[in-house]
Design brief:
- With 241 residues, the protein is mainly beta.
- It has a single domain, classed as Beta Barrel (Lipocalin), CATH 2.40.128.
- It has three helices and ten strands; from the N terminus they run ααβαβββββββββ.
- A ten-stranded antiparallel barrel has the order 1-2-3-4-5-6-7-8-9-10.
- The radius of gyration is 18 Å and the shape is elongated.
């Protein structure tokens, strides 16, 4: 629990939320090391829900800024071989712009964009969510969501993710707790002249819990934790209407 609160304080007050460095294959790396790197880095760029299951509605918008921290094994050799100064941080911290729009028939669509300062890491992603149950005062909302994200800017590594989420949420006054399970597929390959490695294709499963807090009309704050082989912590601040 102490670690949980420490991470959120870090995300709130860190002066430069993106401590990421240039990603490149600077040294010879083995297939096993590359597999593990793709798993951690791929999770770091994957789409996070950052919203409850309930649909926005046909006139709804949700626009926010997110910070997602991915817990990486910074002491492992593959991170030292793939960051610019061979001294990675404990967390891969990535800021994101996240926009969602409600459509008819309880469908929401969304997109993220990232251009990380002081790094060659950029990425974009798309999502579509359908509410199986839109939720009422007495019943929860249940939705299914598909998303795709793609790494750009890193010439020597091609990486994309596809995710399917099942989400449930229930509003209680100004709080909306939500949770879900996800299946994530990560595909990565190297384009370096230094090594010749096989393409990596991995599928894993994870769970998530989150809380949306709406203290004022239109404004919302989200905190989210994703648990699996790789742990992530996220914060979002935005407008939802």
């Amino acid at each position: 629990m102490k670690k949980f609160f420490f991470i959120f304080l870090l995300l709130l007050f860190i002066p430069n939320p993106s401590s990421a460095e240039d990603i490149k294959i600077y040294q010879t790396i083995t297939q096993t090391e590359f597999d593990r790197f793709i798993e951690e880095f791929g999770t770091g760029i994957a789409f996070n829900p950052m919203a409850p299951a309930e649909p926005l509605g046909i006139t709804g918008f949700d626009v926010g800024v997110e910070i997602v921290a991915t817990d990486i094994n910074e002491t492992e050799s593959y991170w030292r071989k793939l960051v610019e100064d061979s001294d990675p941080d404990s967390y891969l911290i990535v800021p994101r712009l996240h926009v969602q729009k409600g459509l008819p028939f309880d469908i929401d669509i969304g997109a993220i964009y990232v251009e990380t300062p002081d790094s060659n890491v950029t990425l974009w992603g798309l999502e579509a969510k359908y509410a199986l149950l839109s939720g009422t005062v007495a019943t929860p909302a249940v939705s299914i969501r598909g998303s795709y994200s793609k790494l750009d800017g890193v010439d020597e590594i091609s990486l994309n993710t596809q995710t399917i989420d099942l989400l449930v949420s229930k509003g209680i006054l100004m709080f909306t707790p939500y949770g879900g399970v996800s299946a994530i597929r990560i595909e990565g390959k190297e384009n370096s002249e230094l090594v010749a490695l096989n393409k990596v294709e991995q599928t894993s499963f994870r769970g998530l819990i989150g809380l949306q807090f709406s203290p004022f009309p239109l404004f919302n704050f989200n905190a989210e934790v994703t648990l699996g082989d790789v742990t992530q912590y996220g914060l979002k601040m935005g407008l939802r209407f």
